[in-house]
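Before a computer can learn anything about folding, someone has to put a protein's shape into writing. The outcome of that step, for a single protein, is printed below:
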Amino acid sequence: MDLGEYLRSSRLSRGLGLRQVARAAGISPAHLSRMESQSSVAAPSEDVLRRLAGILEEDPDYLVCLAGRVPVDVVDIATRYPMPSVMRRMKEQDISPELVLAWINARAHRARRIS
């Protein structure tokens, strides 16, 4: 499913009108209509996508990725840390993101108990 289909499906499943969502997101109904029909030339900004995610109660990072963008904070992390190589190693070793998060949470829990 592409971004436009996802936005439209999410909006309709919540019983929200196009004009209602557009106004709440601070964009024109025509802009939202173009986004949903994929007739928009450029992908919407991350800010617009995050506002839409809030209105539609969706994961903002997922919408940003559907738009073919990388969230700004992820770019910052990836440039400061060796994330691409870490992610490749995770894939090679078949280590799931859930396992990594569980390890991080357990480590944080141990650190809180010690202090």
